[in-house]
Design a protein that fits this description.
Elements: E1 2-6, E2 11-15, E3 20-22, H1 32-35, E4 43-48, H2 54-61, H3 68-71, E5 75-80, H4 88-102, E6 107-109, H5 118-130, E7 136-140, E8 153-156, E9 164-171, E10 180-187
């Protein structure tokens, strides 16, 4: 019931039909040629340079004045059509058509594929990780679009990680006196540490 794609280690970017923005809502200072020709409908994806190149990508896309030559290798890898009707599988197919119609050299639709069984999923994960990738994204094929996080999108990576909200900090001690010692965080389950 899931479509599987590589989880690209990039910088999340939302296109509202007129402005490209980071997840924070701040505009991305992309060159005019990069923005020109994007579809006049909302797009969701990541700016991406390739596997293992996140640090270089961040250096390129966070500049207030974009360097045209640095943007030539940046791809806008799309994985959804925000607000669109229908199941994710239908939106993924529509996204392929949108990218083909645009003909924009930086625009790519992230490949979504079905896998037959858990063994195929493990094999796909191994292939991505062995190739230097981060992991896989599993999107429930019948999921309707919704803003924010949900159980309709799962991440499969070889290392366990989690998200937490920073709720405070502890001062440093010893040689770290006067500096940040540790962050206090709370998980979604309410665990604090």
């Amino acid at each position: 019931g899931y479509l599987v794609s590589e989880k690209l280690d990039g910088v999340r970017a939302h296109w509202d039909g007129r402005t490209l923005r980071f997840r924070s809502g701040l505009p991305v200072a992309a060159p005019a040629w990069f923005i020109a020709g994007l579809a006049a409908l909302p797009l969701d994806g990541v700016l991406w340079l390739g596997r293992g190149r996140l640090v270089a990508l961040v250096s390129v896309v966070r500049k207030a004045n974009p360097v045209d030559a640095e943007w030539r290798d940046v791809r806008y890898a799309l994985f959804d059509l925000p607000g669109a009707e229908g199941a994710f599988a239908d939106r993924a197919a529509a996204l392929q058509d949108t990218v083909a119609r645009c003909g924009h050299p930086a625009l790519v639709a992230v490949e979504q594929r079905s896998l037959a069984d858990p063994a195929g999923l493990r094999q796909a994960l191994k292939a991505v990780v062995d190739g230097g990738g981060e992991g896989l994204a599993l999107h429930r094929a019948e999921a309707r679009w919704q803003a924010g996080r949900s159980d309709d999108l799962l991440k499969l990576k070889p290392l366990a990680d989690a998200e937490a909200v920073v709720i405070g900090h502890e001062p440093g001690r010893g040689r770290f006196a006067g500096r940040l010692g540790a962050l206090r965080v709370r998980t979604g389950e309410g665990v604090e540490f």
